[in-house]
Specification:
Thrombin, subunit H; 4-stranded antiparallel β-sheet; disordered C terminus
Length: 301
């Protein structure tokens, strides 16, 4: 097993609920706090700062926009938020009532694309706040995470439809059912192998789908670990969180899996990202961020 060091850094109390995390254009880690309605910022080695939003808005996924600001979904307030690196905030109500926006990612067209879990729609918002919504061809799909693909489309998980979807810039959607029933995919990311990688929270598997729709699934050692989010590292491996298993793991593009227990029990890891220091960082719902770094070993003589 590849040796790693894991260190946890408290950024709020347990009631804050760090949830998703990304690296901003300013060399800082930006993260949502779903329970306290805050956006946090941490430069590795410095003290964290927090920006208070509506306490009940439920900020969930956060991503870097094409305008070098941070964009996030407000799941409970049914809005899309934007925070600049100097801390100014704008919020955009969505047209569909009670739509439950969750995933968000920048598209190749200079806009942000997001999922609406409760209304079976994919949304698009320009950096000046113009919103378009596209209905999905499946009812009750619960679209969740979304990411740009290598083919110019946006790929997303359909948690309750047990499928991976793709939407083009023209709004046309293609649905790819998963081989495993009731797998409940959540997190998805673009790998460095020109494929999309995703996690199946109910099946305890990592999946890979190529742009032509070919799917492979890789069972994890703990099928009850509840994998949640996934991201590539600088070497092209994929790292994921297991919130029920209290661990993080990695998988190579040929399917070799390694897992690592987190130091604090019941810390509930959710989002994960490659940090500005080339380490992996994950948001722990117990109030901390964890830094995961590979440890170089000295060959035996």
């Amino acid at each position: 097993m590849t040796p790693v060091s894991i260190h946890e850094y408290a950024v709020t109390d347990a009631a804050g609920g760090p949830y998703a995390i990304t690296t901003g254009p300013d060399g800082a880690l930006w993260f949502t706090m779903v329970h306290s309605g805050q956006i946090g910022r941490l430069v590795p080695g410095q003290k964290p700062t927090r920006q208070q939003l509506d306490p009940g808005c439920g900020p969930t996924i956060i991503t870097v926009g094409p305008d070098r600001a941070l964009w996030f979904t407000e799941y409970r307030a049914h809005r899309i938020g934007r925070i600049s690196t100097d801390g100014s905030v704008d919020e955009f109500p969505l047209p569909s009532p009670e739509c439950g926006p969750f995933g968000i990612a920048a598209g190749p067209d200079g806009a942000l694309w997001f999922t609406e879990t409760n209304t079976d729609r994919i949304g698009r918002i320009t950096t000046d706040g113009q919103i378009t919504e596209f209905p999905l061809p499946v009812a009750g799909a619960f679209p969740s995470a979304i990411t740009p693909g290598p083919d110019g489309g946006m790929w997303f998980t359909m948690n309750q439809a047990n499928a991976i979807g793709r939407i083009g810039m023209d709004g046309v959607t293609v649905v790819h059912p998963l081989p495993t029933e009731a797998a409940a995919p959540v997190g998805i990311t673009a790998g460095r192998d020109d494929a999309l990688w995703f996690v199946e929270i109910a099946a305890g598997q990592v999946g890979r789908i190529s742009p032509d729709g070919a799917i492979m699934e890789f069972p994890l050692p703990d099928r009850a670990g509840r994998p949640h989010a996934i991201t590539p590292d600088r070497d092209g491996n994929l790292w994921f969180t297991e919130w029920a298993g209290n661990r993080v793991g990695s998988i190579t593009t040929d399917g070799v899996v390694e897992t690592y227990d987190l130091p604090t029990s019941r810390c509930e890891p959710h989002g994960i990202t490659l940090g500005p220091d080339n380490a992996l960082w994950t948001a722990l719902e117990n109030g901390s961020l964890a830094r995961i770094q590979s440890v170089a070993t000295t060959p035996a003589r």
